[in-house]
Design goal:
534 residues, 48% helix, five-stranded antiparallel sheet, alpha+beta
């Protein structure tokens, strides 16, 4: 038996070693050749029969005996920009430049960069892989015969979606704009919010061996704790996967607790929310191809905070925040409490209510916990159907499904009227705290199972288990329940209530290295008006 296991282990090691050989070979990219024909042949060999790759060979106007070539991809570049800023200057305008009269072969590329190309962003590439990556990123590659170096000229011009209000973070008062799938547009919107030269946007190496996805990290120097920036870079550079298609890939590859149901990395579609997180000392991660930006560290209290809380006056915002906490407990515990009281502790229910509930359950063949589990699953099915179907049809399915199925199930005697009320209240409450809606759905089922076996004692044991688990969680080293656990009385002012903006003069001591936001400037009437009133 031991011999068989040893052979299987050795064969697995050989397979893994063989699987890594192509990746190592791909990482070694040959340098460009000085012959244009050879370079073009290598590039065509890499792209094979791709019909969207354009090859344009021409003779520059300053030397008709010399050959040059342009390579770009249709749809990724602006063809008009390519023609007007590259081909036209090289073929017609550059020969008129007097500096070419003293031009030498050695500094030809430098003269072309300085005298011919008006593009704001261009760079040199010496390896074949750099040229391929530039072309795939929307740049135009210019190669000259006799030079082992190519020029990568930025001519990006693909179609993008316009800026619109995100559906997942709708507000009554506040900015309506949201991030798009283009990372350049997203960084520009972030710069509009934070007009500070200390806002750093660092580009990491393209992630994903096949997709080469562009990833930026954003932070404000002087506010952010540098250990967060270092840790984010370390975790991102550790990613080794074939493709990154959305920021959710990165979220799952860098989070602290991948086996937990609670998210330890935040996400947002709104530039104003990301800007506020950066001003608190957090680090943002922007991924090309998705409107969702990530923020770290992420604390549980952020799920109960909304950007609109700070745009409105604090009194009503505080009430709404308290309602969010109540909605969490209703969504998670209400079905479990109903099952516990109905099945194990009927003596805790008022007599009149107990008689009414018993009459409503007459003829129902299933116990209360089966009702709760079935109705919970049916609700999740209807919610998923409403999300995946086209919006007008999805809304109709959700409304008609809930009304028709609920009424038909009660009339058929499968479920009781009280259970329909419990599920309806639970469903409405689950939409209040959307950042942790997934965790709330799983906890709801967990507590129903606890209640079905041990009643209220099982519910209490489940609460204790969840509390211990949450207190053990960390987000980039920061306790997930901070500042509640560990308790920090100085930073509790923005947990359960929304304090006035003029009183928020300090940042969190764990999130930032510069704690002072500003001075406390409590609004008051002018001094002369106060003197007249007195």
């Amino acid at each position: 038996m031991l011999k068989i296991l040893t052979q299987l282990w050795n064969s697995k090691k050989k397979i893994n070693r063989k699987a890594r050989i192509p990746e190592a070979a791909l990482s070694e990219s040959p340098n460009l050749d000085s012959q244009l024909a050879k370079n073009l042949s290598q590039i065509k060999e890499r792209f094979k029969d791709s019909v969207d790759v354009a090859y344009r060979e021409f003779s520059p106007g300053f030397d008709l005996n010399k050959k040059a070539g342009l390579i770009y991809i249709y749809g990724l570049v602006n063809s008009e920009l390519t023609n007007n800023t590259i081909l036209k200057p090289l073929m017609f305008e550059l020969p008129k430049n007097k500096e070419l009269e003293t031009m030498e072969q050695g500094n030809l590329l430098e003269k072309i960069k300085r005298c011919a190309l008006p593009n704001s962003n261009l760079r040199e590439a010496a390896t074949l892989q750099d040229v391929i990556t530039g072309i795939l990123s929307g740049d135009t590659a210019l190669l000259l015969d006799g030079f082992p170096t190519a020029l990568l000229i930025e001519t990006k011009g693909w179609e993008t979606m316009g800026i619109k209000e995100p559906d997942t973070e709708a507000v009554v008062r506040g900015p309506r704009e949201g991030f798009t799938e283009t990372i350049g547009v997203n960084t520009a919107m972030l710069r509009r919010k934070i007009k500070n030269e200390k806002l750093r946007l660092e580009s990491l190496n393209s992630l994903g061996r096949q997709t080469k996805t562009l990833v930026y990290i954003a932070y404000i120097e002087g506010i952010v704790n540098e250990k967060f920036v270092t840790e984010v870079k370390k975790r991102l550079q550790r990613i080794d996967i074939d493709g990154i298609l959305e920021s959710g890939y990165i979220e799952q590859l860098i989070e602290d607790a991948p086996t937990s149901i609670f998210p330890t990395i935040g996400n947002t579609e709104k530039p104003d929310i990301l800007a506020s997180k950066l001003l608190e000392g957090r680090v943002g991660i922007l991924v090309d191809g998705t409107p969702f930006a990530l923020t770290v560290p992420y604390l549980l209290i952020e799920a109960f905070q909304s950007a609109e809380d700070y745009y409105s006056r604090p009194y009503y915002s505080t009430l709404i925040r308290m309602i969010r906490y109540v909605a969490l407990f209703i969504s998670v515990l209400f079905p479990a409490l109903y099952v516990s009281l109905q099945s194990f502790h009927p003596e805790m229910i008022p007599t009149s209510l107990l008689i009414s509930m018993a009459g409503a359950r007459e003829g129902v063949p299933f116990p209360a916990y089966i009702e709760a589990l079935v109705m919970g699953v049916v609700f999740e099915i209807m919610r998923e159907a409403g999300v995946r179907m086209p919006r007008p049809i999805g809304q109709s399915v959700s409304i008609v499904g809930s009304l028709v199925l609920g009424e038909a199930a009660v009339r058929a005697g499968f479920i009781s009227n009280p259970m329909v009320i419990v599920v309806a209240i639970t469903a409405i409450a689950s939409f209040v705290v959307t950042p942790i809606a997934d965790a709330m759905a799983l906890m709801r089922l967990f507590f129903v199972l606890c209640a079905s076996n041990l009643g209220l004692f099982g519910v209490l044991m489940g609460i204790l288990f969840i509390d211990i688990h949450v207190m053990k969680l960390r987000s980039f080293g920061i306790p997930y329940l901070y500042p509640v656990a560990p308790m920090n009385f100085g930073e509790l002012n923005d947990v359960f209530i929304r304090p006035p903006l003029w009183s928020r003069i300090f940042r969190s001591r764990l999130l930032s290295q510069n704690r002072v936001r500003g001075r406390s400037l409590k609004p008051s009437p002018p001094k002369n008006q106060r003197n007249e009133e007195s």
